Amino acid sequence: MRRVVLMIVMAVVLASGAMAQDILVKRSGEQLNVKVLSVTKRKVKYVRQGTDAPIYTLPVSQIDYIQYPMGDRDTFGKSGVTTTQKVAVKVPQIQPAQTAEKAESAKWHGPVAPPKGVERVEVIESAKEQVYAIGDIYSENGVTGIVVLLSDGGRHGTIMSIDEACLAWSNEKGKEMGATGATSGTDGRFNMLAVGRYIAENGLSWDMFPAFQWCRAKGEGWYLPSLNEIWSAGTMYLGGSRIVANRRLRKAFNESLESVGGKPLHNMMYYYSSTESSDRRDAHYTHMNTESPHTGVEFKGEKLFVRAFYKF
Fold first, then answer.
1. How much is the pTM?
2. Beta bridge partners of 6
């Protein structure tokens, strides 16, 4: 009789253990029945309930909370992870053999060692990072433009404004035009800062530099591109070459601009750069065609086309 009772008790314990599960609730509202392996301040590792593989890794930024079978809960917020424990009537005493390391491991519910002979494959669940191509429309956080330059495998790059203007580089009179220090051929943001310092030091206003002011008025981060930046953007617009234009890609580029209400690029018109010439009265420009010369200098008071750039 005692043997029968013991077998019944063991069956109940095993059944309750089989039903026990961790419930992971994502911020999207999706609920997963899982077995949590480990929790850190940045990520959670788990396996699906009733399995030993694969191991999934999920950033805590995607998790609302995890509910554990005994009533404990890990809640994930901007300030980190908060562990809430259900209060039991009887609290077991920590045995001397339990070290601080083991206690910390228990607190974070892991790690759990895989059964012998079972190979685990780790699957990482993470928010897919947007990858862009030349001619794509970038529109994030109120910033919209067409992608003209890329870096980091398409995850970062430079966009150009979908609109344009025809403006002077400077409205200073010829004799009064000074060297602003906007001499970088590769960094338009450096040139914007240089013009800003020139304005402050000489008691002027941004209105005296229409091309710069037009870009600046678009918001923080927008700038008048350097000669190399605007020239490189034109090269990409032509399909990657200044010798032979890829008309199909050039047409697709302009159609992409028009699809969001933008203006197509002018193939033969001149576009200002923010790069000042060695002659204080002139600034560099380029055009969007294969015909050489591809760059030149123009008197700052002349009006040329202007496009603003922004790095993402």
1. 0.60
2. none
